[in-house]
Each structure stands twice: as C-alpha cells, then as structure tokens.
Specification:
By secondary structure, the protein is an alpha/beta fold. The chain has eleven helices and eleven strands. The protein has a six-stranded mixed β-sheet with strand order 8-7-9-6-10-11. A five-stranded mixed β-sheet has the order 3-2-1-4-5. The longest helix has 20 residues.
C-alpha cells in the first residue's frame, strides 16, 4: 500500500519551545489515515523537522504502508534524506540515522520538497505542539527562585515533593525494529549508546539529583550507569521497575502478535487486566510500580531521583501522578531516551512537569 506522509516541525526561538506534526494520507491525498503531534521541549527547527519525519514514518508503518512519498517544506531534511546533502551536525546525525533505519523497512521511500502553503495540515499540528511546548516552559520553576513548596499552590499541595526524573533507556535492536521488548535483555545499539551519553551529559549539567535508580534489565542499567557517572552517584537496582512481561509476544512486531493471537491482542489493547500468553497484564505492572513509587518517596522524601526504566513503568508513574484512568497508557507516547518529570507530595497530591522531552538528543 502506498501512502503520502506530510511532516513539519518548528521551534519558537531556534532553539526554543518546539514541536512537530505529521499526517499520513492515502495515495490519492483524499483521506487521512493517521496523524500525530508532540511538544518536544526546547530545541531547534531542524531537530523538530526530523522528529516530525520520524513520527510520520512511524505512523505509516502502523497503517501497513509499503511505499511512502514524504512531502516536507524543510529543504535540509529532504536533501539530506535524499542523499544530496551531507549531515554535518552531530545533533542531527542520530535522528538522520534513525530515519534512515525506519525508511529501510519500506519497499520504497521518496522525498519531495513542497512549499509551506502546501503543507498546511502538518504545519497546523506542529504549531499546536509548539503552543503546548511553550505552555510547559511557562510552568517550569524559575531556576533563580527558591524551590520551596511549603505553601499550597493552586492545586492545594503542601510540602516538598519527591521529584521523579523518568528517563527511558536508549535504542536496542528490538526497539529499532519496533518489536515487543519486555523481559528480553538486548544491549544498546550504537545509537542507543549515543542517546544515553547525551542524556547523561544533560543530566550531569542539570545536577541536583540525589539518587539514580534503574530497572534490572541491561538496556536500562547501561543507560542509568552513564548518567550516574556524570552525576558522581552509584546505581541502585529496583526489580519493580522492570518492563512488562510480554510472554509469547516477546520479540514479535505489532502485526505479528496481532496475527498470532488476533482476538486476545485486540482485547489486550483495550483492557489493562488482559494478560499476553505467558506474560503479565498492565494491571500487574501498575501494582509493582506503585510499590516502587512508595519506596522511593519514603527513601528520598523531598529529593530529586533519576528513575531509568521502560515505556510501561514510566507511563504508569505518569498515570499515577495525573490520577488518570488506564486508557492513558494507550495514548501516551514516549520516545527512546526521553525524559519526563512527575512530582509526588507528602500530602498525597502529585503533578506532571514534563512529558517526552528529547531536546538534548
């Protein structure tokens, strides 16, 4: 099946609050098959453009496309992906390689430059994402002011919160191939190592972190170890932060799992109590993540803790902070090596400060 992907990204300030948008059309450009948008923190226009491309290719793969015509108003991305221009910027290199790896999964991918006026749908989505990024920046505390929260804010929360910096591990071969990766133990790829190094440099410069806690799986531990080194801290393993056990679906793609157990897979995508064959339900994951959260709050009251884990445990911690229903697990998107921030107060209140920031990559 052939589709058209239109993608756009932008930054207000370059670097500044950034976001991307992408839309997948049928080959006749009459029907929208999928769309996505995401605020990505503070970064540059070019990073946001590449992130939009990657999101568009991801959505195209999800709808089963075999041929893709990519249309973008970024001359740089189009020319680099077409092989006409070199990628000299180190920050863009990892994104370029990720996009090339994703492109290789299709039978054919063509890149076409279009004027901004012809990219209105993706441009609208990108601007909505930039609006969200700007709002997130407004909500961040001023680094020059006291961080005390002893007086209640508009939410009524009192006391000093325990701040969780939630870092997803870097790329592995299974994540690169978009395969279910639960209790298996693939190593970080070269790109994953670079992502972990970039996160470590950012967190090391940020400082203010009291502890580094990680899932026991190698991909998470290796990601955590780089940040711990940058921070001058030891790494603590918490088994309750391990990824979901996908059972018989481990190592399969979404489509392969759906073909193997079609009815069960459909139920699993809608009901968090459903268990994959020989695996673990999202409800079970939530139970152990609650235990881990309780321990960390008790041991690090009022401190900032770096938690390195996987998609499901991180989404679950964000869900707990938002006091949201289970459906949010199917709607949140977390990129590899992305950073999210949740705060838990001693009076039981909580807040989410940041979701899926990759501006440092």
């Amino acid at each position: 099946m052939k589709v058209i992907v239109e993608a756009d990204g932008g930054s207000r300030g370059n670097p500044g609050p950034a976001g991307y948008g992408s839309v997948v059309w049928t080959a006749d450009h009459k029907t929208v098959l999928a769309e996505s948008k995401q605020a990505i923190g503070i970064t540059t226009n070019n990073v946001a453009e590449y992130r939009g491309l990657i999101a568009g290719l991801d959505e195209a793969a999800k709808v089963g496309a075999t041929e893709v015509e990519v249309r973008m108003d970024s001359k740089l991305v189009v020319e680099q992906m077409s092989g006409h221009w070199q990628v000299k910027n180190r920050e863009l290199r990892a994104l370029y390689e990720q996009a090339k790896e994703m492109s290789a999964k299709f039978d054919r991918v063509d890149y076409t430059w279009i004027p901004r006026a012809d990219n209105a749908h993706a441009d609208r989505l990108a601007n909505e994402a930039m609006d969200a990024a700007a709002e997130l920046e407004k909500e961040k505390p001023d680094s020059g002011e006291s961080n005390s929260t002893s007086s209640p804010g508009w939410s009524g929360a009192r006391g000093e919160p325990t701040r969780f910096l939630l870092l997803r591990h870097g790329q592995t071969e299974l994540s690169r191939q978009r395969r279910y990766s639960g209790r298996g133990n693939p190593a970080l790829t070269d790109v994953g190592q670079q992502q972990a190094e970039a996160a470590a440099q950012y967190l090391g410069n940020r400082g203010g972190i009291a502890a580094v806690v990680t899932s026991p799986l190698q991909r998470a531990y290796d990601t955590a170890a780089k940040s711990a080194k940058a921070l001058g801290l030891d790494v603590t393993i918490d088994d309750d932060l391990i990824e979901t056990d996908f059972g018989a679906w481990e190592g399969l793609t979404f489509l392969e799992a759906a073909e193997k157990d079609p009815e069960l897979h459909r139920k699993w995508l809608r009901d968090t109590s459903v268990t994959p064959p020989g695996g673990e339900s999202f409800d079970s994951v939530a139970d152990r993540v609650r235990r881990a959260r309780g321990r960390l709050i008790s041991e690090h009251a009022g401190e900032t803790v770096l938690v390195v884990s996987h998609v499901t445990p991180i989404k679950t911690l964000l869900r707990l902070a938002l006091d949201a229903g289970p459906g949010i697990l199917y709607r949140l998107h977390l990129d590899l090596a992305s950073l999210s921030i949740a705060e838990f107060y001693p009076d039981g209140a909580a807040s989410v400060r940041l979701v899926n920031d990759t501006s440092y990559l």
